[in-house]
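ok posting inputs for the protoporphyrin IX containing FE job
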Amino acid sequence: FRLWQVKHSHFGKNFYAIPGPKPLPVVGNLFQLLSPDTAHMFEKIRERAEKYYPIYKCQALGRYYVALCSPEDMELVLTNMKHITKNKTYDFLQSWLGTGLLTSTGAKWQSRRKLLTPSFHFSILQEFLKTFNAESQSLVEVLKKECHKPYVNVVNPITEYTLISIGETSMGTNLNSPGSLEKSAQYKKAVYTFGDLVTQRVARPWLFIPALYKMTDMCKEESNIVNILHNYTNDVIHDRKKNFVVPKEGEDASYSTKKRLAMLDLLLNFKAQGAAITDDGIREEVDTFLFEGHDTTSMAICFALMLLANHPKVQDLIIEEIEATVPNDETPSFKDYQQMSYLERCIKESLRLYPSVPFIGRVAGEDIKTSSGYTIPKGCDINLYIYDLHHNKNVYEDPEKYDPDRFLPDNCKNRHPFAYLPFSAGARNCIGQKFAILEIKAAICHILRSFKLEPVDRPEDIKCIVDMVLRPQGEIKVKFVPRT
Ligand code: HEM
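and the output
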């Protein structure tokens, strides 16, 4: 009866008019969504996106969503404040991230976004650059010890680099002390396990029912994992609290600039001023930023290194640019990195092929008339597939080719403004995008100055999996040859 009711409602009439894989009675598309493994699941999503471009619908056991892959439809959703609420998938992150900036909505999201934006101001990023340069140099030293091997799985050392960097910058904490290393390793493992649990749950709509989920071993595992994740962030906050001195009027705070505080200092200061934020409120933001601020940039650097290893001429051009900008192996300044426009194009192209956040989700806050004439009904979940937008032949010629020149100003000018969305767009775009690009530039610049990269994995060898962040199923292997 419920299904009949939905089918004949305003919601159902519009939803069922949208094309998509044929649903079975009662279970809908359940068997198309369930896959033996997360790499297979990843492939299936790509197949559906190609077959039904620019829009399709899926439905399983009372869960309804519409998938979008075209620039026109992405623009409709991302530019309208009515659609800023995240969809059901994000609810599964809340046991870990609470309702921090990534998962919250409405007035809470608005006030936190306003509060936290200054902690990524470019004057603070200039300060952070000291850390990115120093940590990139430490990364090079780690790679020097590994480069005699036939290859390095870059995921481990690069994740170490990005985790230490976000700890040192936004959190004002040293995650590289002897006591922290084991905990950091546990934390990184827990992030992966959490992502896997969420993916398994999203593919099994019956586990959306809390009472059923609570009876599973997955739920028990999730609560152990969340404990590990929260203990880690509690330590970060505790450590910073010990060293943080509330700045007096007109005084500098350590780890921050004259006028602006780094992210955790800003929250601690906000609380010290008597503002309405609890310790849990601080923890949910630290959880959010520690995760978003290291896992995304780590995967971006790993995929970029693999692509560069496969494109020696691109490496040569980057080296030429670095040498022209910063001669004599000097440490690049903020301005130097800004001038490295070829390096920036290479990173952009790498993020096109491997967007660290491959999809984002929203709820339609009102009916949406799509570019192809369908209506997404109010209240429906929407998945925006950034990965498929970036790989679509309607949007990019020869989409699988790595070609940094796609981002030359002349080659961009006729492209739809929503054709390239690694950092999303609109009000809920990535707050850390400038931080990310600077951190990635510093790592690649230091690595290429010290090593020539040779291919081990080819792009076609790498299978990605469905997760919160775009990841390979296994390793990302690159050979590092020291430059003499
Ligand atoms: C290559 C690196 C990165 C990529 C590709 C990336 C991508 C994205 C995307 C696509 C979103 C929108 C998510 C959504 O709508 O659900 C987002 C949001 C966000 N990102 Fe990033 N991100 C990166 C790095 C970072 C860094 C370094 C930080 C922090 C230091 C960060 C913090 C956040 C936060 C807090 C949000 C939520 C913003 C809001 O809803 O107001 N990200 N990011």
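notes: The radius of gyration is 23 Å. The pocket of protoporphyrin IX containing FE is lined by residues 86, 101-102, 113, 166, 170, 288-289, 292-293, 296-297, 300, 355-357, 360, 422-424, 428, 430-432, 435-436 (CB under 6 Å).
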